[in-house]
Amino acid sequence: MANLLIRHGTRAAGPYTFEETERFLAEGTLPADALAWTEGLIDWTPVGTVIAQLKERIAAITPPEFTDLARRVELPDGVRGLSWAGFVIAPFWAVGNRVWIGLLALIPGLGQLVSLWLLFHGRELAWRRGGWPSLNAFRQAQRRWSIAAAIAAPLIAVLTVLVAIEAQQQRGGRPAPEAPAPAPREAAPEPAPPVQPLKRRGAPATEPAAGGAVARLPLPLPRAAFEAALRGRTPAEAEVMVGTPAARHNEQGVVVHVFQNATLNPETRGPDDATIVMFADGRAAMFRYAQQTR
């Protein structure tokens, strides 16, 4: 709608819409002798004349008639309907009717949506594709496809159930992993004769631990005996009982001592190259062993 500039005397205002100008005239806020100008006018014109001309233009305009595309392209009776073949066996129906968009039903996840869409619009797509000699030939072809879908539906349902049962049995009947065979137990070593604690030169003797006297161990010992003797000992007690470690580490508050030839491998009966003792909270808690490949 055109906008109007209003001039009264030497003053000009606007632009105002046609509806606003008409309201101003009705309310009396705009004098009837005021002048107006809009696109298409050569000079200022009385506002009443401009309003009358605009009303004539509006009355002469014929609104366009909007029609639905589906109504403009009418489908014959008998074309619309549910395409059960497009829903149940979408890829086969799409190839047979040359509705190639139906092949999207082969895509996992998207296939269900495509099949559902073909259920409601498949017959219309097949008809618009063209090439049918008559409406009766189209209806007979779609009827044959519906019979094929009715036969395939129970077969697909049974196959789906069988696959689901087989998958459930495989998950439920999967054998549990076999537990590793227990390692042969080492024979309990004969108790070693008590040995007096060793004293370092220039250092006071180590006090006995609460668990028993600190004595030098006859090395190498079987792993079980070694762990039984050192478990709960402090790093200082371990050095008295085993000797000076080959290496020391402190990793995030855990003290690690590495001893050489201190234990016997239960499989080879030979000495371990490295016996690793980890002290947590100042006490021996974990033991690891390493042997080089010879």
TrEMBL record:
Stretches with biased composition (Low complexity): 203-214
Chain intervals for the UniProt region annotation (Disordered): 171-214
Family annotation (InterPro entries): GYF_2
Membrane-spanning parts: 78-94, 100-120, 145-165
Keyword Membrane assigned: yes
Keyword field: Membrane, Transmembrane, Transmembrane helix
UniProt keyword Membrane present: yes
Protein name, as recorded: Uncharacterized protein
Organism annotation: Piscinibacter gummiphilus
